[in-house]
Amino acid sequence: MKIFACTLLWLFSAGATAEAFATATKPAPLLTDSLKVIAFSNRNDTKVVDALNALARLFAYHAAVRDSVFICAERAAALADSLSYKRGRAEALNIIGYTLTTVGKIEQALEQSFVQLAFVEGMGEPRLIAQALFNIGFAAGQQTTNNKSEHQRARQYLLRGLALSQQILDSTLMAECCNALGRLSRKEGNIEEALGYHSQAVAFLINTNDNDIVASEQLGWALYSMGAIYEAQGKFPTALEYAQQSLAVRTRISTHFAVAVSLRLIARLYYKQGKYANALEYVNKSIAISNNLEGAFLVKSENYQVLSAIYFAMNKHEAALKWYKVYVTLKDSASALETQYSMLNLQTKLNVERQEREKAVLVKDREVQQAVIDRQRLLGVFIVGTGLILFALVLVLVRTNRIKQRKNQKIGVAYTEIRRQQEALQEQAQEIEITNTQLQETNTALQITNTALDEANTFKMNMLSMVSHDLKNPLNNIINYAGLVEEDADNTVQYVRNISQIGWRMLTFVEDLLDTAALELGKLEISLEPLNLSQLIREVEHRYAFYAAQKKQSISIETSDDCWIRGDEQRLRQVVDNLVSNAVKYAPRNTTITIGLQQGNNYVRLVVSDEGPGISEADKKQMFGFFQRLSAQPTGGESSSGVGLAIVKKLVEMMNGRVWCESELGDGLPSGATFIVELPRAEAKQ
Q: What does the pLDDT read at residue 576?
């Protein structure tokens, strides 16, 4: 309570201004309630004006209490006017103009801001004039029209405001003007210019006090805009850094709407980088905040659009469709709200024009009546007859005025009828749009379902084809060798070896099928830990040396003893097995297969090379796909499942690595094929 009493004493006894309070620490509920009591008391002095403006400024940054902004600011303006307190009235006009723009009432904001400019120009204070110029430029720049002259007008006011704020070294005002100019440049497609303006805003606010709400809000806007620009340029890591900085600033000052917008941008950036778990986390946070905000249809709809895209990328089509429907519904609500704002702006224009016409008619009537009275005074002294003529003229004018009124009434009736017809057409258009949306949703759902069914059917047929073709022949061979064991006891050892070799190949084939199914269903899991890749490839070389020797091939290893990477031991062994077995399978007899390791600063490369005929460009484009049969044939009659390289690619990517092939078809000479796997380097286990 002592702190609270001291704060009030500073605010009202020491004559603190509304600007000073607006830059104070975020208000506790007790302090805000106390300011309300004082502001709405029966006192009528300048300190009450300051308190009302301070409350309006605080409410302006919280979407849930935007209506309270106008209540406080309008009362502050009226009280300041009655007290001839110009600074208080100027502050109230500034708050009203800015807030009208933020809630989308652009025409009213422009009208109010021009009133503000005319008022403060008479005071001659550069800061107040700069605020008015910014409000006009900000409102004009927010208009949905792409009229170049409107953009130019907005830019002129903003540049004038920026120049004035630079003269008085007001960093917050400079940042406000730069942010508004940056937004205008983005609308015009000048991306680099927009980036420059937002960067200037950040530079102006680099030493912002955490308690300065206005400056912090502008800093959050600038950082968010830079993140959005880098996103549009495809620089996702840089964009993510700025988006996270904007989130930190906006979270600190508790501007919930802006926090939801920054969270949505971060979610979108994680999604575009394929980090779907992170994307889900941030989009759900944004949804949780935006759902507690009144209105905010655009943010809510875009959140569910991102959520639908994430689930679709994760092959969760049912969830993707569910949230896509929510997105479409909210998007329609946002469109309806935008239409409502457009109609309100149009109504405001019509009201202003009507008031101007009525003022013109009133002025003209007064001029005419004054002329009649003057003539009566001059001529009535001399000639009574002239007075009668003048009286008759007045009657004619009155009759003319009545005729004009009747015409205006008819025009009003005609306008009302036109308005009614426009509303009827608008209702019909809305019904048509709803029907089209429903049809589009149905078509989208059918397309998603058909695609999923086609993919599942293709996968099933490929699996059946592999099982029927690639398991049938090995089983027949096992049966034949078993028969030979019974008939020819002298060669039993060789036949058993053959049966063992065929069984091992069948086991490898079945494991490939199971891994293919697990990958397709998203059920395959890995555990990353430091591994000695040198040791692993020596074990694989020892395992395949026997099979290579049968084809008179040799396997050469080029590596040191301490190449450590981060990976899953079982899955990494499977990767090396596939690459070495392919080299043995497709390389000619009497050739050498080389297995090497190359170390970089942050990576280790596994290189498997053979001396075969090479791989064509057409085969290289499809070699990492599932169920692909390439033109190259095994040199020893071995079988191929068509999924080994696809499994290799999936497993390497799950271990945060990449794989590719380097090869060219030689002109009659063997060029060989080289497969390269690049994995993150790790520190050796202690």
A: 93
Determine the Cα–Cα distance for residues 533 and 542; give it in Å rounded to an integer: 14
What is the percent of the chain with per-residue pLDDT over 90, rounded to a whole number? 19
Eight-class DSSP state of 212: -
- Give the C-alpha separation, 497 to 117, whole Å: 97
671 burial type by CB count under 10 A (0-12 exposed, 13-18 middle, 19+ buried): middle
The pLDDT tens digits for 53-104 are 888 887 776 655 567 788 888 888 888 888 889 888 888 898 888 888 877 7
Instruction: Tell me the helix, strand and coil percentages in the chain, rounded to 5.
Output: 75, 5, 20
Closest by CA position to 599, among listed 557, 654, 560, 657:
560
Report d(CA 80, CA 46) in Å as an integer. 7
Per DSSP, what are the bridge partners of residue 681?
565
- Flag whether the pTM goes above 0.85: no
Using CA atoms of 96, 102, 104, 105 in order, give the dihedral in degrees to the nearest 10: 10
**Which tens digits make up the pLDDT trace of 364-386?**
545 545 655 666 566 665 676 66
Around 329, how many Cα atoms within 13 Å sit in the side-chain half-sphere? Answer: 7
The pLDDT-based confidence of 335 (bands split at 50, 70, 90) is low
Give helix 256-272 / helix 276-290 axis angle, nearest 10°: 160
Tracing tokens 């309630």 back to the chain, one arrives at 33
CA–CA separation, 587 and 638 (whole Å): 12
- The CA distance from 555 to 578, in Å, is 15
* pLDDT over 70 percentage in the chain: 71
Task: Name 311's Cβ contacts closer than 8 Å, sequence gap at least 6.
Answer: 317, 319, 320, 323
Contact 191, 183 (CB under 8 A): no
Q: Can you tell me the distance from the alpha carbon of 484 to that of 545, in angstroms, rounded to the nearest whole number? A: 27
User: Is the four-CA dihedral 451, 457, 460, 465 of positive or negative sign?
Assistant: negative
Please answer whether residues 222 and 202 qualify as being in contact, where contact means their C-beta atoms are separated by less than 8 angstroms.
yes
Bridge partners (DSSP) listed for residue 592: 554
d(CA 464, CA 509): 13
Tell me the HSE value of 80 on the side-chain side, using a 13 A CA sphere. Answer: 24
Q: What is the mean pLDDT of residues 282-294?
A: 82
